[in-house]
Specification:
Blueprint lengths: L3 H9 L1 H22 L9 H5 L2 H15 L8 H14 L5 H17 L5 H31 L7 E11 L4 E8 L13 E6 L8 E6 L9 E6 L11 H9 L5 E5 L15 E6 L3 H14 L5 E7 L8 H10 L3 E7 L4 H5 L5 E2 L4 H7 L6 E5 L2 H14 L6 E4 L8
Parallel strand pairs: 7-8, 7-11, 8-9, 9-10, 11-12
Antiparallel strand pairs: 1-2, 1-6, 2-5, 3-4, 3-6
Helix pairs in contact: 1-7, 2-4, 2-6, 5-7, 6-7
Length: about 400
């Protein structure tokens, strides 16, 4: 427990963190990796270069300061981050290292404004928060290892099938190299893939949603190839998987993780809304519902640029043909001539509230959505405008957590 004085000191830094938070976390990562380059094997280099990780950590530090007198308020975020830490292999011994350089970064950026009293208070608060992470993650490591088919760390899997799902998305079907059992997972969870790309100094770890139900003798991930764009370089790992990894090759995988999961105890209708590669956890949820909850009403809505970029379409339509309580709706931003001829979609342009209200059969439902951040923000705002309670909205960011 923190003393009242410590809480007051931390609270006093909230306005400063709001202004200088990203500068502090940017300096923190520079100092951390200079002193401990071995940690570059854990962190996502692309998120570092794009500033996403720095912004996410700044938001987390700000939230901790804002709620320091009620740290239970940030417990859901702690659990979400802890899932990622367990998936990546973050260990208890990493926390003192992070704490040291976070305090040094605060001092370095704020200078004389970071008094000894402030640094001492933040050191105490960090210790409490770090202990919470360490305890939660220890339980997660034990659960991942002790469950049926579970394992610790990274386990070698063999690619048994590689399927091109669209112009940019390819599915990889993988099974354990040791021939052992597969750990069950919740629909919506992900696995971490650890690869050593030839010519790269550090290992690269990326997290990909499992895109099928858990009752299969394999795991499936459906990976979007991130090509170079004006504002970002090509994705090293996704391009490597698409272009270099073939059937028979080995991938190192950590056990399934993540808290963006389908509530299978809920019997209400469910609406699954996705954009682009955000459909991967939604297809896992859909396939699970078709098997485990066939009586539950499901509305599956997906937005794609056009039919050439629409992955797993036939699979969803096949499930729908077998279950009368399932409906699907496709929205294409810029359909091709072939799309217009077939027609292969139900709406042109973007998903908006007016259209949602015509295709969602029952408003009182549970809503899950995933996709690019602007897409998720639009869906989030539309559903709130419609009057959907915030507690019925469930979503996940691919990459560091953000805010809608």
């Amino acid at each position: 427990m923190l003393s009242q004085h410590t809480i007051e000191v931390i609270k006093s830094t909230v306005p400063v963190l709001e202004i200088h938070g990203t500068a502090i976390t940017t300096r923190f990562y520079n100092m951390l990796f200079t002193a401990h380059p071995e940690l570059l094997h854990i962190f996502n280099h692309a998120n570092q270069k794009q500033g996403k990780q720095q912004a996410a950590l700044a938001n987390a530090v700000y939230a901790a300061a804002l709620h320091v007198n009620q740290l239970e308020m940030i417990l859901p975020v702690v659990k979400q981050i802890a899932h990622k830490h367990r998936s990546l292999g973050v260990q208890a011994e990493h926390y003192p290292i992070v704490g040291k350089y976070l305090l040094e970064a605060i001092k370095d950026v704020l200078g004389d404004a970071a008094s000894e009293e402030i640094l001492q208070a933040w050191g105490e608060a960090y210790g409490v928060i770090a202990d919470a992470f360490i305890g939660i993650e220890a339980d997660m490591y034990e659960q991942a290892k002790s469950q049926a088919g579970g394992w610790a760390g990274f386990r070698p899997f063999r690619i048994i099938q590689k399927v091109k799902e669209s112009d940019v998305i390819t599915s990889f079907y993988i099974t354990p190299l040791d021939g052992g059992a597969l750990a069950a997972f919740e629909p919506g969870q992900y696995i971490s893939v650890n690869v050593h790309i030839p010519g790269e100094e550090h290992e690269q770890i990326r997290q990909y949603s499992l895109s099928d139900a858990s009752d299969k003798p394999y795991y499936r991930i459906s990976v979007k190839r991130e090509d170079a764009m004006v504002d970002r370089p090509a994705g090293k790992v996704s391009v490597y998987l698409h272009e270099q990894k073939e059937v028979g090759d080995i991938l190192s995988i950590s056990a399934p993780a993540g808290d963006f999961t389908l509530d299978q105890r809920d019997s209400r209708p469910v609406v699954l809304i996705s954009g682009g590669v955000g459909l991967t956890p939604m297809v896992s949820m859909l396939n699970t519902l078709a098997i485990a909850k066939p009586a539950r009403q499901v509305t599956f809505i997906h937005a794609a640029h056009n039919g050439r970029l629409h992955a797993l379409k036939q699979q969803v339509e096949t499930v729908a043909q077998q279950h009368s309580n399932l409906s699907f709706h496709w929205c294409y931003e810029k359909p091709t001539e072939q799309d217009l001829t077939e027609p292969a979609f139900h709406k042109q342009g973007y998903i908006d509230l007016n259209w949602l209200q015509t295709v969602v059969p029952v408003k009182e439902a549970s809503y899950y959505f995933c996709g690019p951040v602007p897409f998720m923000k639009a869906i989030h705002d539309a559903l709130l405008e419609w009057g959907i309670p915030a507690e019925d909205l469930h979503y996940e960011f691919f990459g560091p957590a953000g805010s809608l």
